[in-house]
Design a protein that fits this description.
Helix content is 60%, strand content 5%. It is mainly alpha-helical. A 5-stranded parallel sheet has the order 2-3-1-4-5, sandwiched between helices.
Amino acid sequence: MKSQQQGRSVQAKRSVAIQQLRQHIAEGQLDLAFNNGHSLLAKFKQDAEVHFLLGLVAEQTGQLRIARGYAAKSITFSEHPDSIFLLSRIERAEGETDQSLELCDRALQLRPDSIQLYIHRAGTLEEAGRNSEARAVVIPLIEKLQSNNRKIPHELNYELAKLLVQEEKYSNAIELIDDLVADQTTPPQLHRLQLYLKAKAFDRSNSYESAFTAATQANKIGRLQFDPVLYEQQVTVLIEQWNAERIAKFPITSCEDELPVFIAGMPRSGTSLIDQIIDAHPNASGVGELSTLELFAQQLSEVYNSELEPPKCFGRYDRFRWNRVARSYVKSIREQSPSGATRVVNKALGNNKLVGLIACLFPKTRVIHALRDPRDVAISCYMGGFNNRRHPWTTRLDWIVSSWEQSLRMMEHWKEVLDIPILDVSYERLVTDPEVEIPRLIKFLGLPWDSACMNFHQTKRTVRTLSYDQVNRPIYTSSVSRHANYEQCVSGIEYPKY
């Protein structure tokens, strides 16, 4: 009797803790949710719901690999549609279209009336360029809801609008989006995405002033503050801390593997295009925007003591720990890549800050620096729809220009103080002279030439970036000097020389 009472007491405490955990997630208190979730997991190691909730937190903080582990673990303990749906979303974000669809169908077997799962399925197909299959999901679902006099969810109409843009039915897409935007019940985040899509539709129909207006409206929703002066100061501190004299005393790992390759540079500078070209080579692969090293850099920053000389300044993170991180990273990217891959590319957008750390972890690495006209970067970022905590500077043109300057400043510093090879790849030269630039890129990686790199768009790989519907087609030059279309909209901004 006593043990039953104790059991009920434990379960009651668990229920309260789970409820609090869900509340923290709903309120956006993700750090608190993650810490409390780990404490709960220590007591309930095989609790499917705890694993699911931790996976949810990791997903929302962009730690997709960690999220995948929690979601997969949750499913092993309980075949719950929420956990399967979470894993499907992660696979979609990682570009694993077939796996995502397979998991989505598996969740639908358990929850066949879930509109959200059908919307997710349609979005996965559209992002993979399988538009006719996506339409075959969206239209019957809309017709079914209409026949039952049910309201069409905002997310479903958004998927339809995306398809209309892909089908070049721009006026129809804009009309639908205007109806959606006018609905005051639309959640702010979706409202913002709808406006970015409207900007894309206007841009592709050559209505540039209207496109800029829509993007401006989108960028004002939930805009986070960014201080260019403070960011410049932070870059200055980074450069001072990672000078040649200090780097010589930093932990250098014994990793001799040439497998890790990194692309660094500003968003919308051709990083996805470069990644696709390399991935098309039979001896190379891409792992997308892998955040493993950013997490390690964050751990280092938390213990870093500027008053101590290296390597003591890193506290408990001595050379052995750096070696462990390097080995773990190499093992991870090898497992994620096809057999026979000798170069694996990571194009995480924070790499420009991490090149010094990368050089210490992987002395045999190669780094590709993606460069593009800052005016085109500014317009592409502004129209692109980043607008998140990691890239608050994308919501104003002058902020984007400041970030471009600091990115270039960091990359020039790395070239001066590091021994690793760093190759500048100009987006403009890459798309206008691919017969020269693509072989140059492949040669830099130490790989034999393969013509598959010229036909990168024919691979079945799905790219999950803002440019997903652009890099999955042959090289085109229409985005060069894109800023000229918006000359009247961007007057007054002083751009650096390029």
